[in-house]
Each structure stands twice: as C-alpha cells, then as structure tokens.
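Why does this matter for the project? Reviewers at the last site visit asked to see concrete outputs rather than summary tables. In response, this paragraph embeds two records directly. Each consists of the residue sequence and, immediately after it, the corresponding structure tokens. Nothing has been edited or filtered.
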Amino acid sequence: MSTPRTTTRPSAPTSALNASRTLATAARVLRQLRHDPRTIALMLLVPCLMLFLLRYVFDGSPRVFDNIGASLLGVFPLITMFLVTSIATLRERTSGTLERLLAMPLGKGDLIAGYALAFGALAIVQSALATGLAVWFLGLDVVGSPWLLLLVALLDALLGTALGLFVSAFAASEFQAVQFMPAVIFPQLLLCGLFTARATMHPVLEGISDVLPMSYAVDGMNEVLMHTDMTTAFVRDVLIVTGCALLVLALGAATLRRRTA
C-alpha cells in the first residue's frame, strides 16, 4: 500500500521585521549601487553643486543666500533621493527581482526596511556633504546649531526615499517614474513657503500646504536659521517629517505584492 505523497508549499513571507534579512537586503542594494557611479554622483554631488551655484548666483546679495540656502539644504536632498529611489526600485520591480524576493520567506517589512536602510545610509553621506559645504565653505549664516540643520536635511532625504519607494509601485517605466515628480514634488515646492510665506497665500492653498510634509521641512530649517536654541516649533516640525516618512514607508510596504500566481 503506497503512502500518500506530501508536498510542501513555500512559506508565506513573514510580517515581522527580521534584522538579518533587512541587513542582507540593504547590503544587496548597496552592492548594486556601487556599480552605478552615475547614480552615486547624482545623489552625493548634485545637491552640493546646486548649493554652490546658488551661493554665487547671489554673490552680490549674500543675505539672500542666507535666507533661502537653509531651506534648499532640505529641499535638494529630498528631490534627488526621490528621483534615485523611485527609478532604482522600479528597476527592481520590472526586472523581476522583487518578484523573486517576495516568493521567498522574506517579509514585506524586511524588504522595505532594507531599501530604506540602504538609501538612508547614502542620505546620511549626502546630507553631511551638503550641510558641511553650505555652512563651512559657502558661509551660510546659521544662528542655531549646524547639527540641527544636518538632522533636518537627513530627515528630508529619508522622506524623499520613502516617497520614491511608494510611487515606484505606480510606474511601469523609468520615464513614468520621472513623470511623478511634477505631481508629487512640484506642488510641495511651490507651497512649502520657499517663495513666499505660507500665511500670505490664498486660504485654500495655505490649508493644502499645512498637510504637505515639505512645508514642515522648510519650517524646521527656518527655525534653525533664526533661533539659537531648539524650539518647540522645531521639535514639532521634525516629528511631523519623521511621521510622514514612516507613514509613506508603510504605504510603500503595502504596495509590495507578487504579480504572478
């Protein structure tokens, strides 16, 4: 009498975070980026180049650079990390890499945390370079601590990373990923208070700006620019930007699913 054959099915991805799997995912992403010098140059050098050009565009009016330089110190990393992360993650989706990873006993949280950790490590380097250049080489006049500037710049870069991970789920090509920039980044850029105080905008636009994370990133930078000590408003801005980044990362994890049976 033959015994019934038992088949084992691949275990479903676990939902809890696993440190070793998260680190392995981050290490794999960093190894891939190491072989893409153009992407690394975009992330690390372009924000510094933009700040350098901005400083000498206003060479005759250094106070103008002081007024907007700190804000752009947070905006530039957010934009570059959004572009790089959305395109890099889209490549993983379209090449089938994410499909194969999701077929393994690897949690969605491990994947999204690994990507965030890898790009976050580059964001730390990027923010440190841009902040150091602006404060110690270009002479950005900051009343508060430069370390608080660095903190906000890093959180902005992480927010850009989270947004890039999220929107990559809705693009079918790299061109479409870039097209999300006018929809996701440009409205925030116009309404964040960089060009005019948010309180002077039309009430409808001011209300919209109140729910956009870039508004609080710029507000946080301005708090460091104008106050010697850490203010309550600064803490509020930092917490809001951090919360938005975590929320978008959670939404990004929700978009990770297998597309084949």
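We now turn to the second protein, recorded in exactly the same manner.
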Amino acid sequence: MKTAIVILNWNGRAMLANYLPTVLSFSQDDAAVIVADNASTDGSPEFLASNYPQVRQIRLERNFGFAGGYNRALKEVDAEYYVLLNSDVEVTHHWLTPLVQFMDVHPDCAAVQPKLHAVAHREQFEYAGAAGGYLDRYGYPFCRGRLFDTIEDDNGQYDFVTEVHWVTGACMMVRASCFREAGGFDETFFAHQEEIDLCWRMRRHGYRLFCVPDSTVYHVGGGTLPQGNPLKTFLNFRNNLTMLWKNLPADERKKVMRMRWWLDYLAAFQTLLLNGNVKDFRAIFRARRAFRTARKDVSEDDRQRLPFVDIKKYAILWHYYVHGRRTYSEIEK
C-alpha cells in the first residue's frame, strides 16, 4: 500500500469514539487505517472490534510508550508513507491529499505535517505543533504559531509551505524508508520530544522536513499527559537534554550544556517560588539526574558519524521574556 494511517492508542477509547469516525470518513478511500494498541485496559480493542471491524488492529503486549509502541507497530506495516496520528485528532475533508502530493514530488523530503488547530478554539493554532517546529540555540522547541504558552490565531500568516526543523508527532507523515534509515524513534525517550529527536536525525541523514498548510487538522492535546503533569515535566526536560547530547557537535554541546544547567535550575526554582509547584520542581531535578545517567549510554562513535545540522542561532527565552516578542513572525523580522 502507499499510505497507512497508524493511530497509537493507550486507554483512549473515548478519543477513538469521538475522532476515529472523521479519520474513516475522510481517509479510508486514500489510505489504510490501523490502530496499534499499547495494552489498553479500558476496552479499546473490544470497542474497535465491535464498532469498526474494518480497522486493522495491532495489539502490543504492554505499554511501550509512544516511541516503542510505534517502532514495534510500524514493523508490521508495509507502506511507502506512514501517517502517525494521535487518537485525539479530528481530520478534515481532503486533508491527506496535499501531504501525499508534496511527498511524491519532493523525494528529499522525509516528513511533513499539516497545520494543527485546537479543537476547543478552532481558529487558533494548537500547542503541539502549530504550523511547524524549530529549535533555538539552547534546544528549546517552538513553533510558527506558538511560542511557549502564547498561541496565535490563524489569520493566514503562515499559509505557505516552509521548511522546518521538526514536525509534530501528533500528525506526522513520514517516508517509511527515511524512518528506517534514521533508526526509528529512540525508545529511551518513552514519550515526549521523541519526534523532534527523530526529525533531527533524519535531517542529519540529508533529508528535509516541511509544513504543508493546505492541510489542516484539529487536535485536542494533552489526552494522555495534560500540561502541568509532573511526569510530563520530567520527560520533557530529560528527553530534551538527551536529544541535545546526542545531536550537537562536541564543541557546541559543551557551551549549550553549561547554559542549560543554569536555565534548568532557574526554571525549577521559578516553578517553586513563583507558582508554588513542588511536584514540577522535583520533576526537573529528577530529570537532570536521569539525564546524567542516560548520556553515558550515548556512543561517541554513533554521535559523530553524521554531520551536524543547523538550529536557530538566537535564544528564544531572550526574545520572549526580555524583548517581549510573542510571535514567530516578530522574532524572524
């Protein structure tokens, strides 16, 4: 088959009930629809078997997280393009065609994403990917349409195809050969920022990534781990540091890690003193400790065998908090 939409599910029966019908209505003529289940205990597999017997299921023996779940499921899917789609995404009419067409005519493109809008505020971009992602000089991810907690309305300001540093795992079309060449997701991440790490590695292999705004989908977001969950804080900090350690060249890595030591602990004390959030404070400290352990398993030979690719030269924190620039457009000016 040419295109396979693979939805990774873990206890997401309610999301499947709400949003799988749109996927089937607007996609099944153009792609196979598959649900890979991370050992759900909420009756998701039984619900699918009873209500959507046409949907193929791949049932995993335990919860391998986003990274491990997709790595295992995609080994069982034979397609030219994989579409990794969260269970809480509402797709729209004709959403798939622009993505497939773009990939067809750009063989150097490893992955694309549509624009992501929020289900709750349909004219607004959604946090988890907006209109394509970037990394600043210290490894902080941000998007066209979203800087930290500032999320823009979509007024057509990003309605042009643009090369990006990373595409969101909430709705990512990835060329299967590129996914395999880059080694798939890093399973030590479990969940969060594993798609950014994969995108970085695919770029290091010489491929390009794009946002194709002719396609739009709507994302609930935070369906598995909502904002403010200390596990989410832990995973984001640990995985972000691990990704930098893996992908930055040695000379740049030393400078970035020195600055991140200060910035991470500043963030920890800010959450404690300004917000009174003890759980996130502890999560950041645990993430720093876990990173120190994780980095020992990164082979220097593996790290150096691929060339470094550019990230943004500026510091997003400086633009946002010191200069008060709240949109991507303001910064890029």
